[in-house]
Write the structure tokens for this entry.
Amino acid sequence: MNPADPLAGLRDIHLPEPVSWWPPAPGWWLTAVLIAALLVLLSVFMRRRFAGNRYRRAALAALAGPVLQMDSDARFLAEVAAILRRAAIAAYGRERVVPLVGEAWLAFLDETGRTSAFTTGAGRVLGTDLYRPDVQVDRERLISAVTDWIRRHRSC
């Protein structure tokens, strides 16, 4: 040690060990638990929603199937009406849907589908015209109205 150099006796600075990432602080544990709980809740919600909309997917698949190739308008209309009725029963229950016929059925479809396509539009043929053997159907507009109802109606 040189008495003339007062800094000669100093040692180098020793840095502390780097902070370990494990174990995490309690706040990170809490955050991880909250995120895991949210993911579980989200997956349960999505699974229930997917299962709850199974009838919509089945109805849309039925409308896109051999129904479109039917040669008779009366058979086509009867099949579309049956598909629509099954979807409505799945969504609203048998007790509410089965008694509805004619104008009441069309009003129900308009009310639940937030539209007027059934009482004043192409869906009007699903009322009393359904039972006429010589019925004329605008297939594209009817399929469009029914498809829109299946996709957008309010469920209970």
Remarks:
- The chain is about 55% helix and 0% strand.
- The mean pLDDT is 91.
- Residues 26-52 form the longest helix (27 residues).
